[in-house]
From TrEMBL:
This is Cell division ATP-binding protein FtsE. GO terms for cellular component: plasma membrane. One of its GO terms (biological process) is cell division. The keyword rRNA-binding does not apply. It is found in: Cell membrane. Homodimer. Forms a membrane-associated complex with FtsX. The gene is ftsE. Keywords: ATP-binding, Cell cycle, Cell division, Cell membrane, Membrane, Nucleotide-binding. Part of the ABC transporter FtsEX involved in cellular division. One of its GO terms (molecular function) is transmembrane transporter activity. SMART domains: AAA (SM00382). It comes from Anaerovibrio slackiae.
Amino acid sequence: MIHMKDVMKVYENGAVALNNVNVDIRKGEFVFLVGPSGAGKSTFIKMLFREVLPTSGILTVNGRDVIRMANRDVPYLRRSLGVIFQDYRLLPDKTVYENIAFAMQVIEAPRRMMQRSVNSVLDIVGLRDKYKCFPNQLSGGEQQRVAIARAIVNNPAIVIADEPTGNLDPDTSWGIMDIFQRINAAGTTIVMATHDKTIVDAMQRRVIAIEDGTIVRDEAQGGYGYEN
Ligand code: ADP
Ligand code: ADP
């Protein structure tokens, strides 16, 4: 699913965000990306959907060569991924339904199929009765569930999440993790950057720790490994 070989990212100002990173992530894995602030986690995540272009190395995602890919092929890469951010990033003037449907309109899905898919992902995240709400009428946890619904509506092979529980209280965070576990159990690969020690320690999934742009630990079933 994801193959990185000797991946390096040096930003324009000379900051080395990733230094010779080697990682393989297979279909169906659930991977936590941990490490101190500034370690390179966001850079790692952003490279996967080509928001950031590696400076050197090899990066393939879903069988696509992310580095040599033509700009016109980037939308196809992104459509095969579901991306979730700490700050939800919903469209404020669209309803829950429209926020999710919008992701499908982009791929010109027929209307019937679109309704069925949107209702189905609303069921998965438990928000069927809120479909007419606007984002500012929802709690943070509900907004994040809408963002997850939007991320999975096109059946992505990989869900990528950058600190998805970073703004949420512990109970709400576990609601989000329950959804991720179900999505993962259905076969979707999940890569999630997080500072949430409780969640990582409890779930005992694969943990990749990055410090100063280098992978310092990669365990099949690990804990958070930092005090916090
Ligand atoms: P993390 O997500 O683990 O906090 P980042 O990937 O955001 O780490 O950052 C890794 C390093 O790259 C840091 O030193 C950071 O300052 C630097 N960095 C991140 N984004 C940029 C950028 N757009 N321009 C220059 N340096 C950056
Ligand atoms: P009700 O008010 O009984 O829920 P609606 O006609 O508003 O009936 O909604 C019926 C179905 O259409 C719902 O399942 C909903 O998910 C879906 N729906 C809601 N908004 C839209 C929209 N903007 N475009 C297409 N379908 C929608």
